Amino acid sequence: MQNRSDELIHLRAAGVSLVMDATGTVPRVIHWGGDLGPLDDAGLEGIRLTASTAQLNNAPDEPRVFSIWPTEFEGWSGTQALGGHLAGTATTPRPVLSHTRLDAQDDGGAVTFTLADAETGLDIDVEYRLTPDGVLEVQSTVTRPAAPDGVYDLASLSTMMPVPSRATEIADFTGKWARERSPQRLPVRDGAHSREVRRGKPGVDSPYLLMVGTPAFGFRRGEVWAMHVAYSGDQRWFVERLPEGAGAHSSVIGGGELLRAGEVRLRPGESYASPRMLFVWSSDGMDGVADRLHARLRRRAQHPSSPRPLVLNTWEAVYFDHRLDRLAELVDRAAAIGIERVVLDDGWFAGRRDDSAGLGDWTVDDDVWPLGLRPLVDRIRDRGMQFGLWFEPEMTNLDSELARTHPDWLLAPSSGVGLSSRHQYVVNIAHPEAWAYLLERIDALVTEYSIDFLKWDHNRDLNEAVSRTGGGDRPGVRAQTIALYALIDELKARHPGLEIETCASGGGRIDLGVLERTDRVWASDCNDPVERQSIQQWTSLLLPPELIGSHVGAPRSHTTGRVADAPFRLATTLFAHAGVEWDLTECTEDELETLRAWSALYREFRPLIHHGRTVHADLAHEATLLHGSVAVDGSRALYCWARLATSAPGQSGRVPLPGLDPARGYRIRVREDLGRASLHQGGGPAWFDAARAGWVDLPGSVLAAAGLPMPTLNPAQAILFEVDEVR
What we know:
single chain, 727 residues, Beta-galactosidase, Chain A, domain 5, 20% helix, globular, EC 3.2.1.22, alpha-galactosidase activity, Glyco_hydro_27/36_CS
């Protein structure tokens, strides 16, 4: 809902209020957080009155203002909303509100402020949209009017939201290949905690989701203010605090696209639109943030609606060994355990016998596939499964026809290419001819083989990413990102049923910009379940399980060398879009039987996991994890109790099961379809021994409030608990 009185605007949705004051020169956010209720005019005036601050000593003679477009003119000495110049001039913006457009909705709504800036000569539009799920989306557009002369060089455009003084801790993420989304925490201090992404994609060390919260905020506790840059190119993220505060607030959280020098030059009549920035407030910890983001994604018209098929990917099974007889046996075994989609990974195209050649030549290798891919595709389809194919369209090897014939298509300086990475270089897909070539090749193959699914990979950073077109070497990351979006959009338009996975050396390009166009992410190249438990836990703060690809690998991990038992490997994949990346031709009959049981379990719980709420428990020790999926109505749940390593305590103590209703009655049982976990104990607890034998009735107050003493597992073990409401 919304209220408006004398340009005091109040948007409300899903327990969130956004109050904006448009009575001044530039609008201000005077409240973003918990729902304030249906404020009348007096209530709105009260919020406005209490948003003013003291005029400090040794400070401007009027109280500083923190507006939606912060500038030095207002006394704001932090990061400015706009950076740029007009031939070295026009560097001190002074925007003035000229128009307000309000779109009232029952749940949320939008307001757009139009500002005119005589100093820079720019027209500015800033749209705030509060979704029915309580997610605040902000996007800014700056336009150089058609009449003036000259070019405005845009250096930066930052979107910021204020947060209160009780938000004292910062959490975001870093990582590396096969260890994405590793959390890091630090206190809010004066100055800026700033992260800049210069990889041409979010990267495996992506900040991913920047959060500021009350002390010791966790999965289920504390207030959290979070931000995500919904964009697939270079990015800026920051939390900033000045001693004088930000209006009535303490700090700001913000970011935007990281622009390279000369990348955006606005000629008369041209515009720049910022990435869509998502801001989320929760009073229920990080799980509350996830609830809002998941709900927003699931409301999209393009969100996957059909059951997420069980996948087999060939990479860790055969690598580059594309012999039809071997692949045919793999396909037959996949069908026998209940696989629903087979994806042929790298190695199918011309000259591709290892990773040093062929990339960019998207024609089927006649030497390996004399009859094309048809014999394999037919075998997959005859067994009732879908067919998917791996591509890496944005990359090439120098040992390829593409690079030899079209060196001008490389995204690299005119003076020559720089360092290779994984023997590959970047194709400038913003080059019209390169873009058209890729569209034609991918479109032709999708059409010929009626491909259901593309694994779209991206295996290196964009270093020295400059385009040789358009006169001189110009920065090219932004154009590359826009061209990627256009290429995927066109393929989707031509093939409406086509699904695409975004992969970038695993989880190096996971953002809500690329996910407007793709249907799932490959969270990591690491299938080690010990690592995956953590990677998936943090990935799920932004994405619901049905968008997160997770495959069971061989007993010995390809990436870490660690050996893990089958029940732990299989249980880890259940809470995602599950699949297999294992040479099934080497499996024993017992292993295949366990895989069949896992396949049946996935189908049984797929509706719950892919439509329910993802929950995590706050535990005393990082060696243990408790996470699960709970039906939206609270009637059913599946939990995973996992141990990653040993810890000093021998007992867990009582652990509440998150997401259940304390006022209801439930029953609980242990699901050991995948085999029994290895326990580091003699027996018990009593409820656990009983639940291994069958259903145990327990009040919701015991399960959700008091909690259950958990069994003590050996490292790299997991147990599944099923919960149903007693009616």
